[in-house]
Amino acid sequence: MTQSSVAAANDTGSAAAGPTAGTADLLRRRYATLGSRSPLFYSTPLEVVSGSGVWLTDADGEVYLDAYNNVPHVGHANPVVAAAVSEQMARLNLHTRYLNDRVVDYAEALLATFDAPLDRAFLTNSGSESNDLALRIARQHTGNTGVLVSDWSYHGNTGRLAELTTGLATGEGLAPYVRTLHIPDAAGVGDESALLAESLSEVDTAIASLVEAGHGLAAVVFDPLFSTEGLVSPPSGYVEGLAARVHAAGGLVLSDEVQSGFGRTGGRMWGYQMFDIEPDLVVLGKPMGNGHPLSALVTTARLQDEFGARNDYFNTFAGSPVSAAAGMAVLQVMAEENLLERSAQLGHYVSERLHEIVAGNPRVAAVRGRGLYFGLEFVDPADPTVPDAAATRWVVEDMRCRKVLISRIGPAGNVLKMRPPLVVTRSEIDILLGRLASSLEALPAG
Ligand SMILES: Cc1ncc(COP(=O)(O)O)c(C=O)c1O
After folding, report:
1. Which atom of ligand 1 is nearest to the CA of 156?
2. Is the CB of 153 inside a 6 Å radius of any atom of ligand 1?
3. Rg, C-alpha atoms of the chain
4. Is residue 50 a contact partner of residue 56, using CB atoms and an 8 Å limit?
5. 155 lines ligand 1 (CB under 6 A)
6. What's the gap in Å between 302 CA and the centre of ligand 1?
7. Are 331 and 343 within one domain?
8. For ligand 1, atom 3, which residue shows the shortest CA distance?
9. 446: closest CA among 384, 397, 404, 402?
10. Which of 23, 28, 261, 444 has its CA at 20 to 30 Å from residue 315's CA atom?
11. H-helix or E-strand containing 434?
12. Distance from the CA of 28 to the center of ligand 1, in angstroms?
């Protein structure tokens, strides 16, 4: 029996059983060591013991279709990545103050996927670290401190980034040098021009406020998919208008590609390529090493050299030959399996099928997303302006019972978050969508 057929046979849709004695004990030990607030998914947490492709197996031998995780980009336990990492680990692993061809080969291969003038990289360990470094560069380059960020977003967990986090709780609160933007949503809007003008005027006001307060503008930071925001789709011209205004004010444009990079948006390598913009700083993460901690900040020679002239920047673990081997193996599998083209084709297919599935369903206001990052927005059928987080949560839990892992996003938590490893096949997508359709049919009246 293949894993797909095992999983197909597993579509019970029944309520999740409570944890087994073994899982309950592990949970207790986790709380006792990592703390009870270290987040876990699901009302009954899932204990996962192995993975392959888009499939995960839990401690009871149950098999789940993983439609949530974008880090295992080329599949869980990908053998090409595992072999490259272990071969290099057995040969040599050390930091970047020695020459090593694997690291340079990888930097060349990665940078070849970017548009000019983005031709330099800093290799780091996490998206947080890259965003933090990008803000240092922006501040030093501009002499300003002000940052624009969306009003429901997440860019990382360093102290500086906590001060501009709007989509998760942080004790720091927003820093005085931060202004937030509400990302306009053009879904269902006929004539977008008024929305565009109004939201760009909000950008002008935010920049003026930073200047007036003496902060000036160092950078705008945004995720091209606006995923934490609930996969909103701004009116056409918004991102271009935002970037133009930031540049005109002397600031830098930081495209945070931790979610949207490596082909996730379908058919293109980088999310910023959906728009007619030239970012100055591009941050990569999650899928980059298929789970090996590998991230990068890609920028221009001018900005990198300017920063290098003022700062002795060194990083112990980042950019090691083992990291480079992981990153190179991801690029290799992406090319061999034609994943950019596949993500475009499957993205279109998913979008069409989702529209069919929810046609006439008053509880779903919109199909959201691009490429292989997609969602459904749930609302109260009696008043479609009221988000229905309870229905969304129910579907996430029900899908887990149907052995499909998904989650939810957005300020109201009413948008399903589906983002399978990019190696997902059409038949696996069909399993996901079939079970989603069954779950929607089973969704109790609100
Ligand atoms: C858009 C975005 N940027 C940055 C980060 C932070 O990346 P990391 O967890 O690797 O530090 C995340 C993590 O979820 C993210 O979604």
Report:
1. 6
2. no
3. 22
4. yes
5. yes
6. 26
7. no
8. 155
9. 384
10. 261
11. helix 426-442
12. 28
Question: Tokens 């989509």 appear where?
Answer: 167
For the CA of 295, the closest atom of ligand 1 is 10
Query: Could you tell me if 316 and 394 lie in one domain?
Result: no
Which of 336, 363, 385 delimits the end of a domain? 336
Specify the pLDDT at position 96.
87
Is-contact 3 55, C-beta < 8 A? Answer: yes
From 258, 265, 295, 419, give the residue whose CB has the most ligand 1 atoms within 8 Å, as the site to mutate. Answer: 258
116 in the same domain as 205: yes
Which residues span the domain enclosing 169? 79-336
pLDDT of residue 17: 65
Both 44 and 154 in one domain: the answer is no
Structure tokens at 406: 């998904």
User: Of 283, 312, 336, which one is at a domain's C-terminal end?
Assistant: 336
The tens digit of pLDDT for each residue in 24-70 reads 899 999 999 999 999 999 988 999 999 999 999 999 999 999 999 99
- Same domain, yes or no, for 62 and 103? no
Is 12 a residue whose pLDDT tops 80? no
